[in-house]
TrEMBL record:
Name of the protein in its database record: Uncharacterized protein
Natural source organism: Melastoma candidum
Superkingdom of origin: Eukaryota
Length: 256
């Protein structure tokens, strides 16, 4: 699947920035299909590794969809191309946000979910940059639109972010206040943010602050879970917590 969005070239002309998404890996539910969750990998990874991890989880009622990000130049790597959901230079609070890339990735995720049956609960999750993109998608859902103004049409029921951050966090409150119809979605959307205290890639404080900003903006069901000494990776303890949280928030009955 590819997306092309207009962007300004150096000469002031509108140039097309193409996003060619890679292979999507699907893990079918082992039991009764009750929920579908799109899970987004981290920078430089692909959907395969996480699909293998998710397949081992004791969640027989979830269908997992694990797409692969487009390969694009990444400023953090000096412009060297890598699989990435958006461009990123650094993780400082005032760093530029690649809304164009995030919109394209969030639209790709929404498109992957567009044909799910109406009785299936929909969730989003991700790790690192994938978590950032999942949280960005959650904000788009809450606002009812992408940053480019296009409507966001998928009904999200739960969002998980591991070792990630909230893009454009400093402007979240103003965005929410500017959309009168967002309040109901903001209050009711369950969100779980998990972060290791030993993370040396995406600092722990970014995850913690993202959770605080979400809560202060009105996301009343946003939970932050910390893991002492955990680096920039997941752990059995963290995945156990994700499983129990998803089972509760998605109303899974565990039947096979």
């Amino acid at each position: 699947m590819s997306f092309a969005t207009p962007s300004m070239s150096a000469g002031g002309r509108t140039a097309s920035r193409a996003f060619n998404f890679g292979r999507t890996y699907v893990v079918k539910p082992k039991g009764k299909h009750q929920a579908t969750v799109v899970w987004l990998h981290g920078l430089g990874d692909n959907g395969s590794g996480w699909s293998q991890i998710l397949e081992t989880l004791p969640l027989p009622n979830i269908k997992w969809i694990c797409p692969t990000a487009p390969t694009q130049p990444v400023s953090l790597f000096g412009g060297f191309p890598s699989t990435a959901w958006c461009d990123v230079g650094d993780l400082s609070e005032n760093a530029p946000v690649d809304f164009e890339g995030l919109d394209a990735s969030a639209a790709h995720v929404a498109n992957l979910l567009s044909n799910e049956p109406s009785d299936i609960k929909i969730g989003l999750g991700g790790f690192s940059m994938g978590a950032a993109t999942a949280l960005y998608s959650a904000v788009c859902f809450s606002l009812g639109q992408f940053s480019n103004g296009s409507p966001y049409l998928v009904n999200i029921c739960a969002v998980v972010g591991l070792s990630g951050w909230l893009p454009d966090a400093k402007n979240l409150a103003n965005k929410i206040q500017g959309k009168a119809d967002a309040a109901g979605r903001v209050v009711s959307l369950p969100m779980l943010l998990c972060h290791g205290s030993g993370d040396d890639v995406v600092p722990y404080r970014f995850g913690e602050k993202s959770s605080r900003i979400l809560s202060s903006a009105g996301f009343q069901d946003a939970t932050f879970k910390s893991y002492e000494g955990l680096g920039h990776f997941t752990s059995p303890e963290e995945l156990d917590h994700v499983c129990s949280w998803l089972t509760t928030k998605l109303g899974l009955d565990g039947s096979s």
